């Protein structure tokens, strides 16, 4: 059973829940088939089967965390919450906790059907260790939050599931718990109430309380949780970043082995992204300027393009490309330092200006922009700046299209 935790050594974020080698076995009694009963009439009608809903789980939870507990149906989420909440005893192992736990588990759990809402508030609060005087003091607030004032003196057996949840959540959060356990029940409430609950959960987070929530709404996990556990067949198949946990679940992985394949892939992807980010940090195109020999440009005019580049290290081999794009987003011309000058020099860390001379351009009329990209020795694109330097080209309209030429005509 759940018992108080001994004082931790750590100063910051003490462990508030310690699940130690917890296993939970259910014994499932199944009726034998008619055939079995005919063949073996003397044996008992039922046969019992062991079912391990939780298999040797060890989890430490630090104060102030919001843990998302996710996994397919039957993976053991509710069982784990009940064991943490002390509602179920583990078959082996133990759970230690520090502080007051309020649990919002199955629908109607902790509610007595024949009692009214009001009586259940007192009953529930007392189970959570709140005195009658304290409950008196908070009663109005509890009822107001629940929004079921009109039914507070009705027996709860006449409540809808939404009304149950409203009252149960309200009692749970007004009992000043250090640890709040919430099973999927929240989904039963209507949207305004769900939002109200989520706001309350945010408030709890800010106050440094610890929350464990089971939800099938995976965006709640990424939005609210600081850590997520994915359960599969009674095992923790993933424990870590909510984004990764959700990715693992979305891809339908159910075993530790399957999840570890995804985890490794996610780790590789992250390592690649990190490496790319490091490489992207090595160079930056800070400006592109275009200097036509005349404004607007006319066919045959020259264009000079200046690209300001800042690099964080020396580059023995490098390449910088520019492209001219017309108003239809079509690339009309591109060149690179290596095309324009195969013998260009290495560059040192620092600021550089790379000048391209583009003489005698024959461009159709229109607006153009220039993009530039800087590549390292492995042709990795370190940085690019799109559609920066803009300029206009003008023609005498003797031709139109992707090319311009001063078309002439004779008729004979
Ligand atoms: P989840 O909440 O992830 O859907 P549960 O923790 O409710 O899963 O259940 C885990 C497994 O344990 C399921 O296969 C369920 O059928 C079984 N189980 C849960 N409670 C009992 C019980 N009281 N008796 C027998 N089996 C149970
Ligand atoms: Mg469940």
UniProtKB/TrEMBL annotation:
<dbReference type="InterPro" id="IPR050683">
    <property type="entry name" value="Bact_Polysacc_Export_ATP-bd"/>
</dbReference>
<dbReference type="Pfam" id="PF14524">
    <property type="entry name" value="Wzt_C"/>
</dbReference>
<dbReference type="InterPro" id="IPR029439">
    <property type="entry name" value="Wzt_C"/>
</dbReference>
<protein>
    <submittedName>
        <fullName>ABC transporter ATP-binding protein</fullName>
    </submittedName>
</protein>
<dbReference type="GO" id="GO:0016020">
    <property type="term" value="C:membrane"/>
</dbReference>
<dbReference type="Pfam" id="PF00005">
    <property type="entry name" value="ABC_tran"/>
</dbReference>
<keyword id="KW-0067">ATP-binding</keyword>
<keyword id="KW-0813">Transport</keyword>
<dbReference type="InterPro" id="IPR027417">
    <property type="entry name" value="P-loop_NTPase"/>
</dbReference>
<feature type="domain" description="ABC transporter">
    <location>
        <begin position="39"/>
        <end position="258"/>
    </location>
</feature>
<dbReference type="InterPro" id="IPR003593">
    <property type="entry name" value="AAA+_ATPase"/>
</dbReference>
<dbReference type="GO" id="GO:0140359">
    <property type="term" value="F:ABC-type transporter activity"/>
</dbReference>
<dbReference type="GO" id="GO:0005524">
    <property type="term" value="F:ATP binding"/>
</dbReference>
<comment type="similarity">
    <text>Belongs to the ABC transporter superfamily.</text>
</comment>
<dbReference type="InterPro" id="IPR015860">
    <property type="entry name" value="ABC_transpr_TagH-like"/>
</dbReference>
<dbReference type="GO" id="GO:0016887">
    <property type="term" value="F:ATP hydrolysis activity"/>
</dbReference>
<dbReference type="InterPro" id="IPR003439">
    <property type="entry name" value="ABC_transporter-like_ATP-bd"/>
</dbReference>
<keyword id="KW-0547">Nucleotide-binding</keyword>
């Amino acid at each position: 059973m759940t018992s108080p935790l001994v004082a931790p050594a750590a100063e910051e974020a003490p462990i508030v829940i310690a699940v130690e080698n917890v296993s939970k076995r259910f014994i499932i009694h199944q009726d034998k088939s008619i055939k079995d009963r005919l063949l073996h009439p003397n044996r008992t009608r039922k046969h019992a089967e062991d079912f391990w809903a939780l298999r040797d789980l060890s989890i430490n939870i630090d104060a102030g965390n919001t843990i998302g507990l996710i996994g397919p149906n039957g993976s053991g989420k509710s069982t784990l919450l009940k064991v943490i909440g002390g509602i179920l005893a583990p078959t082996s192992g133990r759970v230690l906790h520090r502080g007051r736990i309020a649990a919002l588990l199955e629908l109607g759990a902790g509610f007595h059907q024949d009692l009214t809402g009001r009586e259940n508030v007192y009953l529930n609060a007392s189970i959570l260790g709140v005195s009658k005087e304290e409950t008196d003091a908070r009663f109005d607030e509890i009822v107001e939050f629940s929004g079921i004032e009109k039914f507070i003196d009705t027996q709860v057996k006449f409540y809808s599931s939404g009304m149950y949840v409203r009252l149960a959540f309200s009692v749970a959060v007004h009992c000043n718990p250090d640890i709040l356990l919430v099973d999927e029940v929240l989904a039963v409430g209507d949207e305004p109430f769900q939002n109200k609950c989520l706001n309350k959960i945010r408030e709890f987070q800010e106050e440094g309380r610890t929350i464990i929530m089971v939800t099938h709404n995976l965006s709640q996990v990424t939005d609210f949780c600081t850590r997520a556990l994915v359960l599969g067949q009674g095992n923790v198949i993933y424990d870590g970043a909510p984004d990764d946990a959700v990715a693992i679940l979305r891809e339908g992985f159910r075993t530790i082995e399957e999840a570890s394949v995804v985890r490794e892939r996610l780790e590789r992807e992250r390592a690649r992204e990190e490496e790319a980010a490091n490489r992207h940090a090595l160079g930056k195109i800070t400006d592109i300027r275009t200097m036509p020999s005349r404004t607007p440009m006319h066919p045959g005019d020259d264009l000079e393009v200046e690209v300001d580049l800042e690099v964080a290290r020396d580059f023995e081999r490098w390449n910088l490309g520019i492209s001219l794009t017309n108003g239809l987003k079509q690339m009309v011309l591109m060149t690179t330092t290596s095309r324009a000058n195969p013998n260009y020099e290495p560059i040192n860390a620092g600021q550089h200006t790379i000048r391209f001379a583009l003489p005698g351009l024959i461009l159709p009329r229109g607006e153009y922009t220039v993009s530039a990209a800087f590549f390292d020795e492995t042709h990795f694109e370190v940085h690019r700046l799109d559609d920066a330097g803009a300029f206009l080209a003008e023609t005498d309209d003797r031709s139109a299209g992707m090319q311009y030429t001063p078309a002439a005509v004779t008729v004979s």
